[in-house]
């Protein structure tokens, strides 16, 4: 039976496959010397397209001049659309947005030549353009430095186990490792021989995240096109914007500060330097003499958990467990750097189409506070504030880290119950009602239908009388509700 795994690539065929794949006893279609010498796709390769479950395609500059490689790409995507195979692109010395526009990396020079060669069949060239664009829209990898190609392949195999749901459960045959295999090889303990993926899953569109990782520097707001308003509040207005040259999508938060109280440059530097997969990335910060501050951030295309719950209903414990783990990792990252959020709530927890959850506005709350310090409205949302923050006289001093944990606990309760837990469904969250519910009453409990581990997890977050007894983000990550999941 043919292997359901195949590598499609350029001049790395011999070294990559013989050095890595053959040592892993993995059969591929490309480690055939005769195949590399033909101009047309061989019938046995076309037949193999039907049984391959995963294609890793290597996209290199020279491929733009190879009709064979481009024809193979067309066939692969035809079968992907028909049978739902996985296609994982690897881009060498190029970026996704260059590929999408066929600029620079896949420059117009190649396709000008193709249009001249195939002037009687312009639809062929157009098809190549379309499939290259489709490849750029898939989740994949990018390499800009020279590496041993065997190590790159093994890195792909290891990463694929994380990318494809349930892949590791279908690994059937162990691999014999040679004595000289690198440590990265040892991580891939099994060889993919037969896969039985129950449901084809398309790789997600990563236009915006590619821009986040590899995009060029954006020098000014004039390079951005506003597409729509994503949200408004005391902190300003958030727009969905598009970079005019690369077409990458971002979120742009625009705030108006007092001329006399500009944001602290140190706070702005903290935002720029924050780098965590659990926190929405800040790409650039623009300031104007008028006091306007614009923060260019990663765009999360599935919106906030507030919107998600309103449209789909309350979440299960399993989903909340997954969300909690990601949010707590983000909190731990920032708390360990002495930075507090001040406004954890469902609206500030954003998700993308891969269901990754990231905290938005981390560190921005301090800047918002500077912009609004002459206003009567406090920073943060009262409904999610801790008792000691709402009533410092009665509940003691304010601890920002413990207050973030309180807000986190209230948020997780709301996601599970489907409504704000301190008030009755439909009750207006005015200040007197919130003060009474949060400061004077005991914290609410989860319904009896919830698990004891989940109820204890929430109790650890909502310790009211002594904020120092609230668990930290790191402690909560080891709580049985998360650790035993």
TrEMBL record:
Its EC number is 2.7.12.2. Residues 224-482 form the Protein kinase domain. GO terms for biological process: response to other organism. It comes from the Eukaryota. PROSITE patterns: PROTEIN_KINASE_ATP, PROTEIN_KINASE_DOM, PROTEIN_KINASE_ST. GO terms for molecular function: ATP binding; MAP kinase kinase activity; protein serine/threonine kinase activity. Keywords: ATP-binding, Kinase, Nucleotide-binding, Serine/threonine-protein kinase, Transferase. Belongs to the protein kinase superfamily. STE Ser/Thr protein kinase family. MAP kinase kinase subfamily. This is mitogen-activated protein kinase kinase. It comes from Citrus x changshan-huyou.
């Amino acid at each position: 039976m043919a292997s359901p795994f195949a590598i499609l690539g350029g001049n790395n065929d011999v070294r990559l496959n013989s050095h890595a794949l053959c040592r892993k006893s993995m059969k591929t279609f490309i480690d055939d010397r005769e195949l590399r010498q033909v101009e047309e796709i061989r019938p046995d390769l076309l037949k193999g397209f039907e049984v391959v479950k995963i294609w890793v395609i290597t996209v290199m500059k020279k491929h733009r001049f190879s009709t064979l490689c481009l024809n193979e790409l067309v066939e692969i995507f035809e079968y992907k659309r028909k049978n739902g195979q996985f296609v994982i692109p690897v881009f060498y010395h190029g970026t996704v947005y260059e590929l999408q526009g066929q600029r620079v990396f896949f420059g117009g020079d190649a396709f000008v030549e193709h249009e001249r060669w195939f002037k009687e069949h312009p639809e062929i060239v157009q098809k190549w353009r379309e499939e290259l664009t489709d490849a750029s829209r898939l989740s994949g990898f990018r390499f800009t430095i020279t590496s041993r190609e065997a190590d790159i392949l093994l890195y792909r195999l290891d990463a694929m186990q994380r990318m494809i749901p349930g892949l590791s459960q279908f690994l059937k045959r162990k691999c014999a490792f040679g004595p000289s295999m690198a440590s990265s090889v040892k991580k891939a303990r099994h060889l993919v021989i037969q896969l039985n993926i129950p449901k084809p899953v398309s790789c997600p569109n990563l236009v915006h995240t590619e821009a986040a990782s590899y995009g060029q520097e954006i020098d000014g707001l004039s390079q951005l096109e506003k597409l729509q308003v994503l949200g408004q509040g005391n902190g300003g207005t958030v727009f969905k914007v598009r970079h005019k040259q690369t077409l990458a999508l971002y979120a742009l938060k625009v705030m108006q500060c007092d001329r006399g109280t500009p944001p602290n440059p140190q706070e702005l530097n903290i935002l720029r330097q924050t780098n965590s997969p659990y926190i929405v990335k800040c790409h650039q910060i623009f300031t104007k003499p008028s006091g306007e501050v614009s923060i260019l951030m990663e765009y999360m295309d599935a919106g906030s958990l507030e919107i998600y719950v309103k449209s789909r209903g309350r979440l299960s414990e399993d989903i909340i467990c997954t969300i909690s783990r990601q949010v707590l990792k983000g909190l731990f990252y920032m708390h360990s750097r002495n930075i507090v959020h001040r406004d954890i709530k469902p609206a500030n927890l954003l998700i993308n189409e891969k269901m990754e959850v990231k905290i938005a506005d981390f560190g921005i709350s301090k800047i918002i506070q500077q912009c609004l310090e002459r206003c009567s409205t406090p920073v943060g949302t009262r409904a999610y504030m801790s008792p000691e923050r709402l009533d410092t006289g009665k509940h003691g001093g304010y601890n920002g880290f413990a207050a973030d944990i309180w807000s986190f606990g209230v948020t997780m309760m709301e996601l599970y119950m489907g409504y704000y837990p301190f008030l009755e469904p439909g009750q207006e969250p005015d200040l007197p009602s919130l003060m009474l519910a949060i400061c004077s009453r005991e914290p609410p409990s989860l319904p009896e239908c919830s698990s004891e581990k989940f109820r204890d997890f929430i109790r650890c977050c909502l310790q009211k009388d002594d904020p120092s007894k609230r668990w930290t983000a790191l402690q909560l990550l080891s709580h049985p509700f998360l650790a035993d999941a």
